[in-house]
Amino acid sequence: MVLERSDGRDCWKTRRTIINVGSIGTAYGSSLVRRGKTTMVCGVKGELANSRPENPGDGFLVVNLDLPPLCCPFFRPGPPSEQSQAISQFLNDIITSSGCVALSELSVKGQLVWCLFVDIICLEYEGNVIDAAVLAMLAALRNTKLPKVTVNNDSGEIEVSEVCQVLPVKSQPVTTTFVYQQEGGHVIVDPSFEEEYGAGGILSIALQEDGSLAKVHKPGGLQLPDSLLEQCITKARSLSKDMWQLLKTVEK
Fold first, then answer.
1. Which residues are bridge partners to 241 per DSSP?
2. Could you tell me how far CA 209 lies from the centroid of its own chain?
3. How far is C-alpha 46 from the chain's CA centre?
4. Separation in Å, CA 82 to CA 85, 103, 251
5. Which of 94, 160, 161, 229 has an alpha carbon 20 to 30 Å from 85's alpha carbon atom?
6. Residue 21 in contact with residue 252, Cβ under 8 Å?
């Protein structure tokens, strides 16, 4: 049976993706990503801090995703939802496991390091927030420029220069999200809001640029048969190439 999606796409077709960077003047790096109607804005801010004794010279990088009520009636005011916390943890895991940013390169001098906060806010939620959030995070990090910091040898005071240096981004782990529909046994990529919440299971596959598996996120639902899982990984490798190319075309 051929699946008919409400927007006319076939099972393996993603929505159009648009990326812009540098729109937030108060951030060290920023991006806006639109996948279909799902819209994410990301800003990177930094603070100087002391490094941890167990990891001297290593900086900090913390990713947080906010799903406010303004983006979708499904969300309510108050503390972060379980969904936003789970996705935030997944994003932090991707950054850590992929080596996207080398924490040693966030060292300033002596015990001083940069602590970078990557804040992602959903402006409109029309399904598949994970893929859009990952692209927003990567684009904002690629756009990040940190002020050059020195320590005055005579006074010991920290001096922050107006000269900025581009943050080195070592890898770009891109995700592709699928949902499994129990009725008909269909697997579809880049689900809409309706498809996402009517699905029997959801799966996000994070890949490195060499095609290797970086991380898998499966928050629950039905287990995919091995044959369908292999199909998803193969398709993710194909679709990720387009996203890496798109990231490279966006000016830093």
1. none
2. 15
3. 18
4. 5, 28, 34
5. 229
6. yes
pLDDT value of position 188: 92
Lookup: tokens for 169: 């981004």
Distance (Å, whole) CA 139 – CA 118: 11
- The tokens for 121 are 């806010």
- Decide if pLDDT at 173 tops 90: yes
pLDDT for 131: 98
Say which residue the tokens 């002020």 belong to.
Answer: 147
Q: Which two tokens stand for residue 26?
A: 């108060």
Cα–Cα nearest to 26, from 91, 90, 117, 111: 117
Rounded CA-CA distance 32/101 in Å is 20
Q: What angle do CA 29, 172, 41 make, to 5 degrees?
A: 40
User: Which H/E stretch holds residue 101?
Assistant: none
Please check the confidence at residue 220 and state whether its pLDDT lies above 90.
no
Predicted confidence (pLDDT) per residue in 11-68, tens digit: 999 999 999 999 899 999 999 999 999 999 999 999 999 988 888 889 999 999 999 9
Residue 201 pLDDT greater than 90, yes or no: no
- Measured in degrees and rounded to the nearest 5, phi and psi for residue 37 equal -100, -15
Report the half-sphere exposure of 7 (CA within 13 A, side-chain side). 19
Pair 250, 139: CB distance under 8 Å: yes
